[in-house]
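Structure in, sequence out. Go:
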């Protein structure tokens, strides 16, 4: 059962789906674009930063972890 989450890729995908630019995202954090691109490469990030990004994107990014946890729990019950 795959339980791996690459949150950086999820953040980048969410930005694309919302039609937001990296420049916009970096301005909201605030950070420079280079730092934003580095963030997209991270498999995991600090929860406080994830909370801030969730607020910026108006998207509960913690939900990806909750869904994955539920799948893992179900697989353990079999």
């Amino acid at each position: 059962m795959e339980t791996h989450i690459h949150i950086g890729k999820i953040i980048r995908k969410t930005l694309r789906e919302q039609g937001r630019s990296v420049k916009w995202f970096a301005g909201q954090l605030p950070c420079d674009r280079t730092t934003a691109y580095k963030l997209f490469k991270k498999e995991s990030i600090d929860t406080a930063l994830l909370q801030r990004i969730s607020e910026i994107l108006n998207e509960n990014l913690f939900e990806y972890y909750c869904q994955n946890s539920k799948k893992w729990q179900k697989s353990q019950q079999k």
